[in-house]
Amino acid sequence: MNCSTIEWSITTAAYAHQRAAVEKLSRLKVGGLFMDMGTGKTRVAIELVWLRRHKISQCVWFCPVSLMETARREILKHTTCADVDIHVFGPQTRESSLPKAGWYIVGLESLGSSARVVCTLDKLIDEKTFIVVDESTYIKGHRAKRTNRLIVLGKRTAYRLLLTGTPITQGIEDLYTQMTFLSPKILDYHSWYTFRRHHILFDQHKKGLIVDRYDTRTIYQRIAPYVYEVRKEDCLDLPPKTYKHVWCFFSDEQQRLYQAVKERFYDDLMEYDPSETGVAIYRLFGGLHAVSCGVRPAGFVGEKLLKNGRAEILTELLNGINESHVIVWVNYIASIDALREAFGAAFPHRGIFELRGNISPRLRTENIDKWKRDGGILLATQGTGGHGLTLTEANYTFFYSDGWKYSDRLQAEDRCHRIGQTRNVYYVTVRCECGLDKRIRSALLRKSNALQELKNEVALLNGDRAQIKSLVETL
After folding, report:
1. Which of 18, 278, 384, 429 is surrounded by the most beta carbons within 10 Å?
2. What's 205's DSSP letter?
3. What is the pTM of this model?
4. What is the rounded CA–CA span in Å between residue 128 and residue 116?
5. Please, what sign has the CA dihedral across residues 398, 402, 403, 409?
6. How many CB atoms lie within 10 A of CB 73?
């Protein structure tokens, strides 16, 4: 298939808010769909490509590797295109063997790690290419190799589109590279340094520490003509969400190791220059979080899994509900191992399916398909399964532990609270009675990034070891 020579059509009807999005962006060559998760922005993007089908020869669809199969299925779902019309970049994709297709799906991570993929795209993308970047916050880092390569490739074609439900995950600086990809003329700054001089105030002593952001209204005014935004509650009549959290206590082993992680940090603190404690702080927070989640942190000898109450509590909770499909989100792959063992013993007749980063995309897809078809318990890491998937078969979602970022939590929640969900959705979170878990919960309630907040708090102590130690003792 060639988008400009073979006629294809849209097969699904659009909701009112999707029609409004198409109406606005169809007048533009570049634009962004900043639509809440679950509102159907993929369907809108496909129609925008369809409207340009006689002016383009192909669409190159960039998305996280974990979503490549989802993107392929969405194109098949919403159009008359066939399998042969879509090529998903894989280990064998090369310039010499690239098939003719109307759609090419490329993993965003490959832009930064694979010279083979970049060389192939260099020959593929031309002035008649429509580029779609799905989950565009993957290109928010202005120094990232993938970001700069995508900006260079994007300059070749007139048609460029961003898709994301969370355009800002930390601050307005996230918008700079996304808008630069669309067109530098939107924000009208020649470089990142010009942008930050107008809108970001950094700490004079701590490199990279942002202390204030200002004149954000100017940024929003400049991007407004080029983006379509919609909130889920404003366009969809979805059932409500119900939240519950349950607390558990540390085992003796966790308690000892939690304190040992702090003691290691105090030793590190004496070795590092007061102005260069970043590595030690990262080891501290990562270690405490791992212990809280029942995982032995790096550098400590012993069994990977710690005796803890989270798996026991989740088993009891699952025993109390009668649902065919259940999702359990975790932060560590090791936690999946613990839950698989616990659930396998407690629920021998229920299917247990895994969605994690160290299995192949093919196996992930098979596991999701089996879970959807047969029911069971889906054990998933937020980093792998928290984006792009539709899991509306479940209306009970459990969080084995909290992660650092509000944006990641929201992404995971919205896998089952989106178009197609007809039942009240229940979210149950297991939390430990420790200072770190309480700090993380507080940050999530403020829709913030707990890790960044803690790092900033330490940075503001200007290397005062006594004050830093006092702060750590509260965790």
Report:
1. 18
2. S
3. 0.80
4. 22
5. positive
6. 14
